[in-house]
Amino acid sequence: MNNFQYKNPTNIIFGKDTIAKLAEEIPADAKVLMLYGGGSIKKNGIYDQVKTALKDIEHFEFGGIPANPEYAVLLEALKVIKDKEITYLLAVGGGSVIDGTKFLAAAGVFEGDTPWDILTNKKPTLQAMPFGTVLTLPATGSEMNSGAVITRAETKEKLAMGGAGLFPAFSILDPQVITSIPRRQLVNGITDAFTHVLEQYMTYPAGALLQDRFAESIMQTLLEVAPKVLEDPSDYDAASNFMWSCTMALNGLIQKGVPTDWAVHAMGHELTALFGIDHARTLAIIAPSHYQYNFESKKEKLAQYAERIWNVTEGSLEDKAYAAIEKTESFFNDMGIDTKLSKYTNEFEGTAEIIANRFTERGWLGLGEHQSLKPEDVETIVHMAY
Amino acid sequence: MNNFQYKNPTNIIFGKDTIAKLAEEIPADAKVLMLYGGGSIKKNGIYDQVKTALKDIEHFEFGGIPANPEYAVLLEALKVIKDKEITYLLAVGGGSVIDGTKFLAAAGVFEGDTPWDILTNKKPTLQAMPFGTVLTLPATGSEMNSGAVITRAETKEKLAMGGAGLFPAFSILDPQVITSIPRRQLVNGITDAFTHVLEQYMTYPAGALLQDRFAESIMQTLLEVAPKVLEDPSDYDAASNFMWSCTMALNGLIQKGVPTDWAVHAMGHELTALFGIDHARTLAIIAPSHYQYNFESKKEKLAQYAERIWNVTEGSLEDKAYAAIEKTESFFNDMGIDTKLSKYTNEFEGTAEIIANRFTERGWLGLGEHQSLKPEDVETIVHMAY
């Protein structure tokens, strides 16, 4: 097991009808900016629940944060924060709204030339405005971690930020919100969370027995509840396990003491930036090719995953490892997620080269748990995913 | 799944040679009281490591906190805290030293008549002096939770306290400390952590699939590493998994959203208070009888535990459930832990009645996950454990 440091101070308030407790978590004298997305919260009742909870706290609103939170839109929100002298941010949404809010929390106290520097200066964000979240879409784990990914349409870039200052002060997780989520987004959430676990697990054996089992526990639970959630999103038992699994998949715990990969995300982000493909779907496109390409260095963990998650007991270690990749791809396919880039765009030719070039230009030293994947490897993997 | 609230702000610094990082976690202008136990840290080198790390920070020492931290001894330490105007506490030890330090952290700012009120007023401790820990004995999880248990020899009482103010600011977990722990204490640690998981798991199915699997992950890992740790405490892989499992067994995570029992601890504490039996051993004495006595209400989870932890696949649900109790008792016995009170004392007659009477006198409304166990049930369970 590798050395690690772990601290996660986010206060999780989980369960039925917990949105009503919102005001208890925000200082009474705060000046709040409530941030949300495309307006679905106005149809499903969450907006009203939040407004009711905030009735005695001074607050403003900023809606319209898009999926893949867009820098230009966030700059408009930043203007509101400055103009209204906002002291507390409240994200009401999924990963995109929460990530956008994290950027704003950092930008609200940033003293550099331009807030874009937060994304490019490679410095951890240690100071930020306080903020909380009301999660409306389980998937990214952003409600209990200190990372965010921001998109800039102008330059077709999607960049990550993070740091100890970016943990939400609190997050409210009411599994009842799942009832009104469209199937497409539920499928994305399941795929996103499952792949988050894979990124922190599918590397090489590192003697971290408990972390491996925790990762496997999350995957087993997602596999168990996925059909139930998709069949009936109002199944509270299934919804609550789905929601908690998504949070635990990326709240930092399972990555402690182990090597992590994240190459699937790095390549996937480029597909979203280039083609606007849903984040989760880009992961499902890249993951099978990535595991095939890196088969030799990952086969021990692939085989363990085959045995413990997919109950593959027959065959050699390699047989099991291959079966695991196939079963993972089938899992995505069975939920209606295509795992080939050509199913999403006719303009796929040349994508592998474009992405490889971007990595070269950014001066990346190497992707994957060994930091060994060069732009030419990326090119091959993306090509395999056509 | 039940509603829950979860926040754990302790900063964990885990791994090889991490004690050297101690000073980074303590304010430079702090006036520190370093608290420790019977002096084993002076033999195994931990004392020297801590002193070296603290060389630039003003600090005092208080040694001699006994196993089952004794109120009278802690009052002496409290006097030092007041006299020296200590601002920060540092526990260097196992659960007893850490629990004692938590009591002192609370007592240092307590404004009631007598510090004993902290144990008896049934109020959560929200304010306390800041403190950190250097864990020398994995077992209790106290290094990452907000609870403590204090003993008072004068009245043969052992009482619990807790509250959000009692999370350590940081805890340093260096698995290398295990190398010098005597076998008896290692066995106690394994038993204690394993029973902690059982207390939060062995109730009734509550639809908390992920929490169940996390609990099972910890038990599986403890079972896997126990023989290795006992065979060779310098096996770092085994030691690190043992240490992290003990912490995760009682840092609050696996109890969220599920019913918990804790009757084994409640009865066990009495055996320690009456006879001075090691805490972990009292749990091993009580647990089998407790599960047998409450078989009907626990049999579903006992059977799940039998299947997933002990690989019992044959027989009826009841058969599996019984087998699970037997296997648990054998696990303790195989490590050299006796599971009958009469193996520890010849004075066992009447113990069941004494303990039942104590519960009656304290006005306990009922033990267990259903709060349904009355003093007469306690009497029967303890009797079964003779």
From TrEMBL, chains A, B:
<comment type="similarity">
    <text>Belongs to the iron-containing alcohol dehydrogenase family.</text>
</comment>
<feature type="domain" description="Alcohol dehydrogenase iron-type/glycerol dehydrogenase GldA">
    <location>
        <begin position="9"/>
        <end position="175"/>
    </location>
</feature>
<dbReference type="Pfam" id="PF25137">
    <property type="entry name" value="ADH_Fe_C"/>
</dbReference>
<keyword id="KW-0560">Oxidoreductase</keyword>
<dbReference type="InterPro" id="IPR018211">
    <property type="entry name" value="ADH_Fe_CS"/>
</dbReference>
<dbReference type="GO" id="GO:0008106">
    <property type="term" value="F:alcohol dehydrogenase (NADP+) activity"/>
</dbReference>
<dbReference type="InterPro" id="IPR044731">
    <property type="entry name" value="BDH-like"/>
</dbReference>
<protein>
    <submittedName>
        <fullName>Iron-containing alcohol dehydrogenase</fullName>
    </submittedName>
</protein>
<dbReference type="GO" id="GO:1990362">
    <property type="term" value="F:butanol dehydrogenase (NAD+) activity"/>
</dbReference>
<dbReference type="InterPro" id="IPR001670">
    <property type="entry name" value="ADH_Fe/GldA"/>
</dbReference>
<dbReference type="InterPro" id="IPR056798">
    <property type="entry name" value="ADH_Fe_C"/>
</dbReference>
<dbReference type="GO" id="GO:0005829">
    <property type="term" value="C:cytosol"/>
</dbReference>
<dbReference type="Pfam" id="PF00465">
    <property type="entry name" value="Fe-ADH"/>
</dbReference>
<dbReference type="GO" id="GO:1990002">
    <property type="term" value="F:methylglyoxal reductase (NADPH) (acetol producing) activity"/>
</dbReference>
<dbReference type="GO" id="GO:0046872">
    <property type="term" value="F:metal ion binding"/>
</dbReference>
<feature type="domain" description="Fe-containing alcohol dehydrogenase-like C-terminal">
    <location>
        <begin position="189"/>
        <end position="386"/>
    </location>
</feature>
